[in-house]
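FW: tagging you since you asked about this chain on Friday. Here's the raw sequence from the shared folder, copied in full. Didn't touch anything.
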Amino acid sequence: MSFSSEVKQELCGRVSAARHCQLAELAAILHFCGQLGKDAEGHYTIGLQTENEMIVRKCFTLLKKTFNIETDNFVDEDQMLDLFPKIGDPEEPVSSLLLKNACCQRAFLRGAFLSVGSISDPSKAYHLEFVCPTMEKAEQLRDVMQGFEVPAKIVTRKKYKVVYLKEGSGIVDLLSVMEAHVSLMNLENLRILKEMRNSINRRVNCETANISKTVSAASRQISDIEFLRDHYGFSKLPAQLQEMAQVRLENPDAPLKDLGQLLDPPVGKSGVNHRLRKLSELAESVRN
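HL: got it, structure written out here
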């Protein structure tokens, strides 16, 4: 099962106790993937455009709790007349009257995610999105999320408007808002492992780069010293540079700090670096 399916499975098992929250979640499902109408015989019908059976069961659980509508019966006219004013036209955004309370807004986001939401595998990338049919619905969804300080944005993809999050922290916050606590903990565990892995990789890359830099510098130093020996002569060098040149040739792999301890008297890392730089500058001068 994908991580997105795990989140939806958890959300399907979360049913608010309050009727106003149940209405908000039901409204989100019907507005994002529902169809209200009549069949050829004039019976009122409620349909859902989804292949996920869990979402269908969740929707009809909410219909049973809020309007006492059974899944094995046609919706009678009285039930429909009660349903429409409260839920509103599915072609429009959900009525703001259903989203007055923070608890109802959480339920609305749950219903929206169940209907048109998805989340990528967090071990590979952080991406959560809602694919909305209209800009009005996308803007309402974004505004509700931003009300919880979740930094959602909107982008156009073909004929759809996509509300999305691309940061792990924002996705964690949204899962918390929707009360998908198990999925949140699973995501946090994956984030910790991912951050540890990235930290180790960065450290290894940094150490590798430093080693490469040190080896490259030592190679250039030895090349310059050998050039001076063969084309200039150590005897022409000042005593300190003669000693430095000899110590470096005898210890090609030693770091600067260790080279300094081999000098008489010992000098610090900066002193060794200064003398080696002088040797390189002299070699360059002789080459020119």
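FW: The chain is about 60% helix and 10% strand.
HL: agreed, and The first strand starts at residue 34 and ends at 38.
FW: great, closing this out.
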